[in-house]
Amino acid sequence: KWLMVGVIIILIATFLVWNRFFKVNSDKELTDQNINITINPQTVMTLEKGNLRKTVSTSGYLQPVDEKVLSFNLNGEVKEILINEGDKVTQGEDLIKLDKNERELNYLKIKNAYELIKINGSDSGIEETKLDLTIAAKSLEDTTLKAPFSGLVTDISVKPGDYVTQGLQVAYLIDDSSYEINAAVNEIDSLEIKKEQEVIIRLDAFPDREFEGRVKEIGYYTENVNGVVTLPVVIQVNTAEPEFRPGFSALLEIIVDQVEGKLLVPITAVFNQNEQSMVAKVVDSKPKLIPVKTGVSDGVYTVIEDGLIEGDQIMINAYQFAGIKPEANLFGGGMPPGMGGGVMIRK
C-alpha cells in the first residue's frame, strides 16, 4: 500500500516539474530570444544557388498522330497484296489490288460509246455519256488501294482470293514519324497548364531514357470519373524512335515553372508565423528566426527570393518553431534539461 502511494506521489511530482518547466503563455510569439535549442550539425545546411522546376505529373499512352483503317470503296475479290505487315510505305504507293477485269471492260465499253457520241450525238447525250465515263474510271481506279500518307503498315486483314465489301477493314496504317500522348490532369493542376509548355516523358519500355515533348492541346470540357474531375490534355512527342509502338505507357512531367540560379531551401525549413514565412538561420550556433520572401516551390524545395544570401546556414527542419504549443511536448517526447533533446522555450 505504502509503495503504491509512493509511486503516485512520484508521478504527481514529476508532472508538476514538467508542467512548470514547459508551460508558457500559449499566445506568446516564438522569437530567437525565447528559444534555447541544441543544434545538431546534421540538421544544418549551407545555402547555395541552384535550379528548380515545378512540374505537374500525369500519365498516358503513346499513339501515332495519324492512323487510319484502310478499306475499299467497292466490293470485289482480292487479287494481289503488294505489302507485308511492318513495311514502310510512302503516300500514294499501291498496297492491295482487287480483281478489275469486269470494271476494266465496262470502262472500255463506255469510252468507245463516248468517242462515237461525240461525233454525231446531242449535247445532252454527250454530257450524260461523259459522266458515265467518269464514274467508270473512278470505279476502275478504286480497285487499287493506295497509301493515304507515308507510314508503317501494322496490320493486313485479308489474303488473295478473299471477297471484301465496301468499308471492310483490309489493313491498318500509322504515321510512325509523329507520336502524341493523350493524358488528363487534375482540375486544380489544370490552371497551371499552358500550350507549348515543355514536357519530360518517360516510357516504361525505356526505363533509362527521357524524351521531350510539349503541350499540344488542352481540353475545354472536364471529365468526371468516380468524383475525380480532370481535364484532358494532348502531349506532342518531339522525336519518334523506330522502337516506339502504339500503346506504350508513359509517365509525364509537365514543366509549369522553372528558375535558375536561385537560393533553394527544403520546404521543411520554412514555417509561417503571423502570416509571414520564416526560417531558422543559424547564428553563433543558435537559431535566429528570419522573415523571408519565398518563390516557386516544386513540393520538395522552395525558392528564397529575399531575406537570406548564399552561404547562410539554416536549420533544415523548422517544424518545431511553427507555432507548436509548448504543452504539446509534455507527453510528446520533450525532455527537461539534462535528459536529452527537445525545444525549450524561455518565459
Q: CATH fold name of the largest domain, please? A: conserved putative lor/sdh protein from methanococcus maripaludis s2 fold
What is the N-to-C order of secondary-structure elements (H for helix, E for strand)?
HEEEEEEEHHEEEEEEEEEEEEEEEEE
Structural class call reads alpha+beta
Describe the largest sheet.
Answer: 6 strands, antiparallel, barrel
Low-confidence stretches: 1-5, 14-29, 324-347
CATH architecture of the largest domain: Beta Barrel
Topology record:
Elements: H1 2-22, E1 35-36, E2 44-46, E3 49-64, E4 67-71, E5 76-81, E6 88-89, E7 94-98, H2 101-120, H3 123-141, E8 144-146, E9 151-156, E10 163-164, E11 169-174, E12 179-186, E13 198-203, E14 211-218, E15 223-225, E16 228-237, E17 249-266, E18 271-273, E19 276-283, E20 286-291, E21 293-297, E22 301-306, E23 313-315, E24 344-345
Antiparallel strand pairs: 1-24, 2-23, 3-12, 3-17, 4-11, 5-7, 5-10, 6-9, 7-8, 9-11, 12-16, 13-14, 13-17, 14-16, 15-16, 17-22, 18-19, 19-20, 21-22
Family: Belongs to the membrane fusion protein (MFP) (TC 8.A.1) family.
InterPro entries: Beta-barrel_YknX (IPR058636), MdtA-like_BSH (IPR058625), RND_pump_MFP (IPR006143)
Protein name: Efflux RND transporter periplasmic adaptor subunit
